Amino acid sequence: MAEHTPLPWAYRPYKHDDWGWIRGPAMEGEELGELVAKAHCWTTDEDRDAHRAAKTDPYAANAVLILKAVNNHEALVKALKLARQRISYLGAACSDSRHFEANEATFLPAIDEVLNAVVGQAQLSGGEK
Prior knowledge:
Blueprint: E1 10-11, E2 21-23, E3 35-38, H1 45-54, H2 60-71, H3 73-93, H4 98-119
Antiparallel strand pairs: 1-2, 2-3
């Protein structure tokens, strides 16, 4: 599988970038970063005319949401793995508590489900992958 474009990505970093454009960083020797995505949403002709008049981007909200997800992906995965590790540790330290064991049985599969969705790997059971 090919590697993704290096991070961070940026929303319309150049003066003449079109609506919704998302670019990667400029590589060594290059003036512009690579166009990696173009956000879009349903708009009417009237909506687009209003945005042109106001000099605003109708796709900005979607572009910014994409940037938040992409640019924070590694930190989110790291935080989820740390949360899972700490819950597992607490479960081992408090194994005499039936209440905690019930919560651990609820929390760990929930975190595993989120990690699976974010990382795209098989369910984590018993440690990091």
